[in-house]
Structures are given as structure tokens and as C-alpha cells.
């Protein structure tokens, strides 16, 4: 069921699940990893932790809020490509995406952007 108490269509269900995974699971994991104490590693996370450690909390928050925009824009590009409303170079065919024997492409990008806007990600 969605927030309005209605049963979700499959496309809404897919977007709800992916959105939750990205913003409720993955993003906090990145934030925790990047704000954990620095170590002597030289991997990409350690380098990012070192860079973030030089920022005050306000600037760190700005960076993490920008991560939300990057995640949203990237996801929107993928969903738009599947929907047929975005055309990356060298991809000019049509996609058919099904879930539980139901075609779900066509409004994935719009549903995702609506969720992102409702969550205030682009503000």
C-alpha cells in the first residue's frame, strides 16, 4: 500500500523499493563510512574521509545533500532510458521491462522524480 492507503501498481512498487534502497539504506551507509575515523588506508573511501574531515558540519551536510542530487539524477537517467524518454548516445531502440508479467516502463522516471521532489532532494 502507498501512503494514501491505496494498493500500489507494480511500477510504483518498484520505484518505492529502489528509492528506499538508495536513500534509506545506501546513502546512510556511505555517510557512516565517510564520517568514520580516518585510518592509514589509501583507498577511495579513505581519501574521501580525509577530504571531508577538513570540512565543518555545515559543509559536510551540503556535500551529502549533493550526493542525493547525484543519486537522483543518475537514477532518473536510467529510468528515463528504460521509459523511452531519455536517449543516451548509441541507444535508440525500445525497452520492454516487466515485473510479475506486467510491463512497467513508461512512467518510472516520473515516479522517481516525484518521490525525490516530495522528499525535498532538489532544494
TrEMBL record:
UniProt-recorded name of the protein:
Uncharacterized protein
- Source organism per entry reads Photorhabdus temperata J3
Amino acid at each position: 500500500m502507498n501512503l494514501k492507503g491505496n494498493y500500489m501498481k507494480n511500477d510504483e512498487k518498484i520505484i518505492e523499493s529502489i528509492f528506499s534502497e538508495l536513500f534509506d539504506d545506501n546513502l546512510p551507509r556511505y555517510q557512516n563510512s565517510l564520517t568514520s575515523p580516518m585510518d592509514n588506508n589509501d583507498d577511495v573511501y579513505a581519501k574521501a574521509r580525509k577530504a571531508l574531515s577538513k570540512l565543518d558540519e555545515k559543509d559536510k551536510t551540503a556535500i551529502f545533500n549533493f550526493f542525493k542530487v547525484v543519486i537522483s539524477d543518475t537514477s532518473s537517467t536510467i529510468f528515463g532510458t528504460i521509459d523511452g524518454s531519455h536517449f543516451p548516445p548509441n541507444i535508440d531502440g525500445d525497452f520492454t521491462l516487466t515485473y510479475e508479467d506486467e510491463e512497467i516502463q513508461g512512467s518510472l522516471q516520473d515516479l522517481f522524480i516525484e518521490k525525490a521532489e516530495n522528499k525535498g532532494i532538489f532544494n
